Amino acid sequence: MGAMVTLHMREADLSRDLHSALARVQQGVEIIIEQDHRPVAVLTRSPSPCPDRKLSECIALAEAWEAKLGDAPVPDADFARDLQEGIDSRHDPSEPPAWD
Questions:
Q1: pLDDT tens digits along 8-17
Q2: Burial class for 12, CB neighbours closer than 10 Å (0-12, 13-18, 19+)
Q3: What is the pTM of this model?
Q4: Pairwise CA distance, residues 18 & 40, whole Å
Q5: Rounded to whole angstroms, what are the CA distances from 72 to 53, 57, 61?
Q6: What residues pair up with 63 in beta bridges, in sequence order?
Q7: Less crowded by CB within 10 Å, the N or C end of the chain?
């Protein structure tokens, strides 16, 4: 992998052309955002995109993690509630909405 390109941008320039800045980040450019010539934030591409996964895939990954390391990931106390809210917010793809 080649060296990462770093670009310094003023906050005002970033706000004028956020779309272009994000396109550069997606190409692998690191952007240091500055106020009064002082760095205040860094924009970089996510090290690993968060893929859409089925719940069964997540369970399999957790089981593989446990088998490899001997310790399973532990969800926080609100995990079950958050999971149920996510399930409830989805529409069943086998029952598309009725059109007038």
A1: 999 999 999 9
A2: exposed
A3: 0.46
A4: 16
A5: 18, 15, 10
A6: none
A7: C
